[in-house]
Amino acid sequence: MGFAASLVSGKVSLLPSTHTAEVIRQLTAFAPDVFCLTDDPKCDIDLPQTPFPDGTASSEDFSVPAIDSGQLAAYVFTSGSTGTPLPYKKTWGRLLRCVHDGASRLGLLDGRAHTLVGTVPPQHMYGFESSVLLGLQTGSALCAERPFYPADICSTLTAAPRPRALISTPVHLRALIASGLPLPPTDLIVSATAPLSRELAREVEAAFATRLLEIYGSTETGQIATRHG
């Protein structure tokens, strides 16, 4: 909702990989007018803070706004593992084209509304595209929880209406298989951020009675390819 509000108001979302003090300092140097939109009254990010609205719904009719395809929507930052995080511009049109192509490859443009459960941070390029933007582009519902541990992932998936998709990583998938927990049937699993072995992919597909697709991409390019098996 914060990202959508930024789009409508012509503001640019800044999506750093972490919120450490050093990254926040670098972010302030990059954009001196940056502020933090938060719904956490205990948020300790050292930036001017704007509290998130209380969620009171409006009964007024509305229409979906038209956003110019050339509008700068976000800066996505690299992790900074080799130095200062580097910003990459993402226009609204480029983001939509990339996500629409990805949604088609994932089979999420079949007319059904899916529930997306993500175990990945929404400010990372993979999480941003495959959860936040995928929901906006396909009419799917984005689960508010971001479960981390196997039991939490299983309970969140079980509660999510079907058809449901899990947006995750090889690390989380390996932990789920090793947990020994009953794994809920899931209509689609998407993996990225690290190489996925064929052995693990087959185990996951069998355990979840599902189809698993791996995404290739980067912060610089966004998603560029998918692979099954």
Could you describe the 3D structure shown?
The structure is a single chain. With 229 residues, this protein is an alpha/beta fold. The chain has a single domain, classed as ANL, N-terminal domain (Rossmann fold), CATH 3.40.50.12780. Helix content is 34%, strand content 21%. It has 7 helices and 11 strands. It has helices at 2-9, 21-30, 92-106, 125-138, 150-159, 170-179, 198-208; strands at residues 13-15, 36-38, 49-51, 72-77, 87-91, 115-118, 141-142, 164-168, 188-191, 212-218, 222-228. It has a 6-stranded mixed beta sheet, with helices on both faces. Strands 1-4-5 form a 3-stranded mixed beta sheet. Helix 5 crosses helix 6 (170-179) and helix 6 packs across helix 7 (198-208). The longest helix has 15 residues, at 92-106. It is globular, with a radius of gyration of 18 Å. The protein starts with a helix and ends with a strand. The mean pLDDT is 91.
Question: How would you summarize this macromolecular structure in one to three sentences?
Answer:
The chain has 229 residues and is α/β, with parallel strands linked by helices. The protein has a single domain, classed as Rossmann fold. The protein has helices spanning 2-9, 21-30, 92-106, 125-138, 150-159, 170-179, 198-208, and strands at residues 13-15, 36-38, 49-51, 72-77, 87-91, 115-118, 141-142, 164-168, 188-191, 212-218, 222-228.
